[in-house]
Task: inverse folding
């Protein structure tokens, strides 16, 4: 069974950094693109970033460009999201998700992503 598990969330002060991990089990990650999404209380789920199956293509939401970096280590079956210069508005539950494709689907269309993890909380606060 295909499973994704996020980790690395926590409480951080504004301007700080966190690295999220998305570990896959039950399938070989290098057949799939992986996206990161987030959802804050009372807000719609927002696409944050995506990386193609071999890492050759990455995309970012405008709100995180220049601050977040997505990467992957297929040997470890893991995708990462390095988050720097965090702001209070980055506070949300962060999810990783996989489309049934080697290529990223539009981050604006979360329904294009078929497999989801359970999420990890990121709180940016002083």
Result:
């Amino acid at each position: 069974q295909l499973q994704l598990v996020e980790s690395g969330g926590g409480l951080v002060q504004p301007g700080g950094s966190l690295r999220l991990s998305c570990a896959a089990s039950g399938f070989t990650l290098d057949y799939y693109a992986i996206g990161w999404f987030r959802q804050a209380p009372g807000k719609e789920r927002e696409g944050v970033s995506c990386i193609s199956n071999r890492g050759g293509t990455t995309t970012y939401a405008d709100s995180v460009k220049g601050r977040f970096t997505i990467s992957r280590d297929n040997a470890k079956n893991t995708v990462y999201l390095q988050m720097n210069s965090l702001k209070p508005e980055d506070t949300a539950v962060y999810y990783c998700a996989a489309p049934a494709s080697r290529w990223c689907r539009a981050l604006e269309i979360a329904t294009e992503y078929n497999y989801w993890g359970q999420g990890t909380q990121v709180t940016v606060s002083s």
Notes: The radius of gyration is 13 Å.
